[in-house]
Design goal:
Bound molecules: thymidine-5'-phosphate
Shape: globular
CATH class of the largest domain: Alpha Beta
Strand content: 25-35%
Helix content: 25-40%
Largest sheet: 7 strands, antiparallel
């Protein structure tokens, strides 16, 4: 386990699920994972006990695994139980959603029933803007708003598909079907890195055998067993 001893400085930013702290190294920040949970652009607010710890450990594991497959990530080290030491990035102002199976907003948008496999993997871009409710972006919208360059769009699509190949296979080995997920990227020294987190907060994961949802949809849809689902995903990932 990669662990780095470094001192936590002032809080730079507090988001819905994490706090980012400065460190004594200007190129590094600490991401502290919280138990607080929100959904539907923070209309629904709650606490998922043990989520911070589970998501930090799950993200750490997935980032380390992606690095071994040649994906550059911001992950540098782990300070148990809830903190990741990460490269400081200038985050790109888009969220990248990768979808293998219809669910959530895609089902609503194009009328596919939840669970319908897609003909090919979709990579979508959303604007990171809570006031606007993170709307879906077309390439023309991205150009109009000068959000990222055309070559960054291509790079993110390629990275999204590469990450998908790795994650699909890995989660399947854990008995989990990777339905869809959200990625965030940032830039340091001119290079794009995968940032933020990959966890049951940001993925849809269904048990391969039973189809049971083991992700934040349990919180969004009041399905119960939320804490247990996060613990189950962590257990399967760590024993794989
Ligand atoms: P969606 O179907 O609601 O568009 O969500 C697609 C995927 O992105 C799903 O796995 C949940 C994840 N997601 C986030 O991580 N953060 C968000 O704010 C939203 C809306 C979705």
């Amino acid at each position: 386990m990669k662990k780095v001893d470094i001192n936590k400085g002032e809080a730079l930013y507090e988001g819905k699920a994490k706090i980012v702290y400065a460190t004594d190294d200007p190129s590094l920040v600490i991401q502290h994972f919280k138990d607080s949970a929100t959904a539907f652009n923070a209309e629904k607010v709650g606490t998922i006990s043990g989520k911070g710890e589970a998501n930090a450990m799950i993200s750490r594991h997935l980032f380390e695994m992606l690095e071994t497959k040649g994906i550059p990530t911001q992950y540098v080290g782990f300070q148990p139980p809830t903190d990741l030491i990460t490269r400081k990035l200038d985050m790109l102002p888009v969220e990248v959603v990768v979808r293998n199976v219809a669910a959530g907003s895609l089902s609503k948008r194009i009328g596919y029933p939840e669970g319908k496999p897609l003909k090919s993997t979709l990579v979508e871009f959303y604007l990171k803007d809570d006031d606007l409710g993170d709307p879906l972006l077309t390439i023309d919208h991205i150009r109009e708003l000068d959000l990222i360059t055309d070559s960054q769009v291509e790079a993110l699509k390629k990275l999204g598909l590469q990450i998908n190949d790795v994650l699909l296979k890995f989660f399947l080995e854990c008995g989990l079907r990777l339905i869809d997920y959200k990625l965030e990227f940032g830039v340091a020294d001119g290079q794009i890195y995968l940032g933020d987190e990959i966890s049951p907060d940001t993925c849809r994961l269904w048990d391969v055998g039973t189809g049971e949802k083991l992700d934040k949809d349990r919180f969004r849809q009041d399905l119960g067993g939320v804490e247990e689902a996060y613990r189950e995903v962590l257990k399967r990932i760590e024993s794989n």
